[in-house]
Write a structure and sequence with these properties.
The complex is a heterodimer of chains A (588) and B (330). Chain A has 588 residues and is α+β, with helices and mostly antiparallel strands. Chain A is 27% helix and 18% strand. Chain A contains 19 helices and 23 strands. In chain A, β21 and β22 (579-580) form a beta hairpin. The longest helix of chain A has 18 residues, at 532-549. Chain B is mainly alpha-helical. Chain B has helices at residues 10-14, 16-20, 32-42, 44-61, 63-70, 112-148, 150-165, 168-178, 188-203, 205-220, 223-230, 235-271, 283-290, 297-325; strands at residues 182-183, 186-187. Chain B has a two-stranded antiparallel sheet with strand order 1-2. In chain B, β1 and β2 (186-187) form a beta hairpin. In chain B, α6 runs parallel beside α10. The longest helix of chain B has 37 residues, at 112-148. The relative contact order of chain B is 0.13. The chains are: A alpha+beta (588), B mainly alpha (330). Chains A and B meet through α8, α11, α12, α14 and β16 of A and loops of B.
Chain lengths: 588, 330
Amino acid sequence: MRRKSALAAAATAALALVLSACGGGGGDTPQQPAQSASGGAAQPAANAALTEVFNPSTKKGGTLKAAHSGDWDSLDPGDTYYGYSFNFGRLYWRTLTMYKPGPGPEGNTVVPDLAEGLGEPSDEGKTWTYKIKAGLKYEDGTPITAKDVAYAVARTWDKETFPHGPSYLNELLAWPKDFKGVYKTPDVDYKSAVEATDDQTVVFHLTKPFASFDYIVQMPMTAPVPKDKDTGAKYREKVISSGPYKFETNEIGKKFALVRNDQWDAATDPNRPALPDRIEVQLNVNADDLDNQLISGDIHLDIPGTGLQPAALGKVLPDPALKARTDNPTIPRLWYVSVIPDNPPLDNVECRKAVMFAADRVANQTAYGGEVAGGDIATNVMPPPIVGQEKFDIYPSEGNKGDIAKAKAALTACGQPNGFSTTMTFRADRPREKALAEAMEQALSKVGIKLTLKGFPASSYFSDYAGNTDYVKKNGIGLAGHGWGSDWPDGYGFLQAIVDSRTIRDAGNYNLSVKNPEVDKLIDQASAELDDAARAKLWVDVDKKVMEDASILPVVWAKALLLRGQGVTNIAYNEGQSMYDYVLLGVE
Amino acid sequence: MTAPLDVSGSAAEAQPEAVLTGAGKAVQGRSLTRIAWMRLRRDKVALAGGITVLVLILVAIFATPIIAAIGHPPLEFHQDQIDPATLLPKGNAGSMGAEYLLGVEPVNGRDIFSRIVAGAGISLLIGFTATILSVVIGTVMGVIAGYFGGWVDQVIGRLMDVFLAFPLLVFAIALAGVIPDKGFGLEGNSLRIAMLIFIIGFFSWPSIGRIVRGQTLSLREREFVDAARSLGARNGYILFREILPNLIAPILVYATLLIPTNILFEAALSFLGVGINPPTPTWGGMLSEAVRFYTLPHFVIFPGLAIFITVLAFNLFGDGLRDAFDPRAH
């Protein structure tokens, strides 16, 4: 799972197929509209950038001003794992493939970027070959070759030098046994994993067949790095650009500025309109300040892309003019309560069902930020943006306020007609999770289930407390609030890590409560199923089995409230990025 | 407090020293306490502080009937009062009005008035009992150090230095994180309250201890102690019958000044999220939640005001008490 603001990075080939089927024949490419060059006539309306490009424009020039409430993990393409970084980085790097820019379901598909076309699998999906376009150059004019891509992939292997980036390629490729990274073992040939057979051809060798490799290579590990300019961990200070912009200044932790890269050739790149002349980024801006500047128009873009702070919500939502500038997409993330079967009486499924029925879903939703900033009431585990998701509800209640009678019946069936006592944990530094715990305490007290609430620091929540099996058993923990967002918007990517009981270790667990052999069996069936539709169906079955097991109480399918900057043109929400598509943006 | 002096006549009340020097009326013996009480009665500011303290104590004791009469249960949600999009109260000024005297909290719509009244109990309970604990430890250690002197004084003196230099807040945060759910026959929040009282009380005794030691040092050399000793009184008799009664006034004064410090300390711990577990209302905890909604002044102001008024009242009363017992201290 990507950290914090990371929401979606990769999808599977199955996803591509399903989505292009759903997407229907949406004819013209949204990112290069043929409308007026100025585009100033667009009328703001809420959610206008979800289905089409808002304020479309082809006008070049101007400075795009962006700000970040924190700082990048790293600007190095080989060392970054935030969704916003994957999104923004495409302004100064190019990868073999990329998410199709623009709004709508097509945003979940991949298109070639450095490569001439999508990957060609051979050897039953164990070998993937990409042909690189001719005439590509770095910012200093030297040509970009297949060798540079292979080198860039090999350098990311070293997780001591690059601790942040994803490790998919470490696990998927057939690395030589004596390879310890390009810095420690510079003489070891890594061609058994990735090789450049000539200047235009890069070949990946996998240890097992993997159908969705095109989605892996859209991640920045495949952004080319020239070997003679590579400074290892220091490369983040001076990244050599392969995209339409290059670094003019870079003060780590403070600010940086990008200017046009005159060596980038628009003819090789149909995906990036590259409208602004200059992009300025301020780092470590106070989050509330940042919202205010975005509202007033002093800045154009909030880099993290996770939505407005609570203080700004109170200002934006009641004001029709400001509300018209917002977009409110559902993102592939579930906030939920684990109902842990480790301690009696919650080891009895009927007692867990009592919790399901007694919970007040509306109060929980409000605690988690309400219908706009929080999300829609979740009735099952998989969120709607996951491919093949089905919405169902086996614990219905009137107005979603909880069903006291059914909860009491379940308690009686469990042999605890007067209720019981247990402890619920939450992350003390997350106000929404604390509010959720308080809402649960109120709702469960109505059927006699007495909750003691305990807050813990988020940094050690999974290692020492809720995710530590020993702690949970010794301290009688029954409920634990937390959440999950997927790297892969399909059943495997979302469910496996949180419902497969075989992933449970002594500590650091994300699956806190689903320990059901029938669920495990269904997961194996689903993973082995080759037919896309049948596989999606099986993942829905997994979801249903988990809900019957009553070991996950879903709270909300998360939504984000994004605000479009004043004077920004060509703005659209991209589903693959789960935020605005940063490569499209321009300024008036 | 002792009962008012049965001396009539405004002159005597206005100028107790004049009475002492025997101007006009027959000379009457008056204890230090009585003189102090007469001085205190003239100190309007201190009296106002004292009355406020009294009211707060009554509110804390009768919290349940007060909430039942003019509020809603402090843990009860009123989400019908909340705008589901912004999570803020629907009504004007945070839904303040006849139904909700001080408005409702954002998100869950709990009655702020009820939560402040219910929070008074915890604040005062911790403030008082922690103070009693430190007064007991401080007095015992201070008297022993002051009376026996020598190496005993040295050891206790250094111990006080150690305790005063202790990074108490850091220690309290660390300890509050590892407190188990059950222990010492207590469970959940009662255990946490007991632990907070212990932490705060146990680490703030040296301030009382130093004052008691100083007073004991000077009392030890006084004539009446010499007299008792030359009559063959044992240490125990001198300590309990001669010295301790003379220490009551300073102890009372400094205990009154220690209570608000302890209340603030509890509020600070709750603010940092290591105090009492939610959903039990505490003033510090309410303040910490309010920070997220700083655009809603009522949510920040009322718990802040509660802490402010309580601390101010105790301080004013304590200052007045000190002036009354020892006018030369200023």
